[in-house]
Amino acid sequence: MSESNAEEAPEPLNSIDFRKLAWNSELANNVNSLKKLRLYFSLTEEEELTMQEVLDNHPMNIPRYYLSLIDPNDPNDPIRKLAIPTAEELVVAGQMGETTGDPYGDDKHNKGNGILHKYPYSALVVATEYCSMYCRHCFRKRIVGLPNDKTVESFQNAAKYIAEHKEITNMIISGGDPMMLPTSVIAKMLEALKNIDHVNYVRIGTRTPVVYPLRYLDDELIKVLRDFNQHKTLYIPTHFNHVNEITDLSKEAVLRIRNAGITVNNQAVFLKGVNDSVENLVDLMSGLTRIGVNPYYLYQCMPVSRVRHHFQVPLKRGVDIVAEAKRHLDGYAKRFKFIMGHDIGKIEICGRKDDILVMSQIHSRPEHPEEASRILMGRLTENAGWLEDLDLIE
Ligand code: SF4
User: Fold this and answer.
1) pTM higher than 0.85, yes or no?
2) Which fold has domain 106-392?
3) What digits encode the pLDDT tens for the residues 138-190?
4) Would you kindly state where each structural domain of the chain is located, as residue ranges?
5) Beta strands of 165-238 (E only): which ranges?
6) Among 133, 141, 177, 204, residue to substitute to test ligand 1 (most atoms within 8 Å of Cβ)
């Protein structure tokens, strides 16, 4: 008998009432090592060896709540693919083409104190590196974080930068996952933004409504969000990728946010083996409208190292799936834009006519204002997955 088999069996996930748990202490039970993972899943020796190699590069962190959504008997379970590492992550680049650690060009636009200022009117502040779950498809895996006291100090400096740049009309508090910060830290950050007149609204980008909804059972957090929203409009962009992530508890989290007067928008990522079918997209987008979340973006998976090879859907196939899904969706459910979050700006993927992909650039970098609102067309190949793979038509 191996050492692992001798370990005490954990509390069965389906018998845990996650509503009764304190959000901050429950994080200590996250599955963040092979030792913990094998308490819930049977892993072959080979799987363990490759997983350990993956974990040396990209850690694993899965809340028990999110783990409970996985069917342990289904090796192709979509939630499993989003949370549990596989040997595929050892492939830095592969069949889909070249990759990079920084596909969105974040580093070029870093103004210090965690500020990324890419578009004149929007500023993003990376508030923390920590997330309640490390998604296997994350495009910001490389970001280095700060301890919480340093976060507040940095944020005060970030707020100063925003106050000095009157062209900034909105800002995004991002990460990592800002909702993993203590409520008192979130309150201080929002306080620093309250009186900057030229900022029309603030977004807090978070995946916690999906992977850690018990965070929103904290009345104090809801109060902080509600109070800020009385001064300045607050939006919560979140990140549901699959209909199985819509549960009674995630619904309750969304409802508590909405009852505080805050709009929740969804930014999904199009991922092979997770949601790359008409049925999956229809179920996801209509499920979101049912719980009061607006489908906003569906991102083409970026050419991220150790991600692109196994998660990116070829554009030719992808654009057909999205077009067919939209035929089945009502007006609100099909409001989402299919987007390439490219280094040159955001590009909407509109559709294809035979082998010509039609795109519309909707944001550009400040140094190329002429590129905003332009139509782009490119020749598709079977495997093209990103703008650089297309032969652009002048
Ligand atoms: S929650 Fe967001 S930032 Fe954190 S690992 Fe997932 S995708 Fe990346």
Assistant:
1) yes
2) TIM Barrel (3.20.20)
3) 877 555 344 566 677 788 999 999 999 999 999 999 988 999 999 999 999 99
4) 13-90, 106-392
5) 170-175, 201-204, 233-238
6) 177
